[in-house]
Automatic annotation (TrEMBL):
Molecular functions (GO terms): sequence-specific DNA binding
BP-aspect Gene Ontology terms: regulation of DNA-templated transcription; response to amino acid
Top-level taxonomic group: Bacteria
Protein name (database record): Transcriptional regulator
PROSITE patterns for this protein: HTH_ASNC_1, HTH_ASNC_2
Organism name: Gynuella sunshinyii YC6258
Residue ranges of domain HTH asnC-type in the record: 3-64
Lineage: Bacteria, Pseudomonadati, Pseudomonadota, Gammaproteobacteria, Oceanospirillales
GO CC annotation, single: cytosol
Keywords tagged on the record: DNA-binding, Transcription, Transcription regulation
InterPro entries in the cross-refs: ArsR-like_HTH (IPR011991), AsnC-type_HTH_dom (IPR000485), Dimeric_a/b-barrel (IPR011008), Tscrpt_reg_AsnC-like (IPR019888), Tscrpt_reg_AsnC/Lrp_C (IPR019887), Tscrpt_reg_HTH_AsnC-type_CS (IPR019885), WH-like_DNA-bd_sf (IPR036388), WH_DNA-bd_sf (IPR036390)
Length: 153
């Protein structure tokens, strides 16, 4: 679907604030509410907008430790990867799981937990017990310099 300037503006504004009303959105982009709503629905139907969610404050929830975890697998078989991915996606502490290349690791995880004790439990009782995990390297986040979920449109 080719995007025009209105579509791009809609996407940009909704990434910044998914709670904008159709009226507010229409006023911001210079369209009347009906065509604006039609465009938003078309963007949703075409899969460009895949959802809306609330962003939560991890620290206020007591989740003060974030780590980037590199995982190495013992074998590079589809079955190993499917099993690992199924197990890792079931862990609520895992915010992101990326299959990577160019490193000594096969996966990079972004995890968030209460504290170091909770991290140790996650690592030793859950992650390293997944069949095929042969190595783990953890880096702890000292400070978020930038945090964005918005894509350049």
């Amino acid at each position: 679907m080719p995007l025009d300037r209105y579509d791009r503006h809609i996407l940009d504004l909704l990434q910044r604030n998914g709670r904008l009303t159709n009226q507010e959105l229409a006023e911001s982009i210079g369209l009347s509410p009906s065509p604006c709503l039609r465009r938003v629905r078309a963007l949703e139907e075409d899969g460009l907008i895949i959802g809306y969610r609330a962003m939560l404050n991890a620290k206020k929830l007591g989740l003060t430790l974030m780590a980037l975890v590199h995982i190495s697998m013992d074998r590079h078989t589809p079955e190993r990867f499917v099993n690992f991915e199924a197990k890792i996606t079931a862990l609520p502490e895992v915010l992101e799981c990326l299959l990577i290349t160019g490193q000594d690791a096969d996966y990079q995880l972004k995890v968030v937990v209460r504290d170091m004790d909770a991290y140790q439990e996650l690592l030793l009782e859950k992650i390293t017990r997944i069949e095929g995990v042969s190595g783990v390297h953890s880096s702890f986040v000292l400070r978020k310099v930038m945090d964005s979920t918005g894509l350049p449109v």
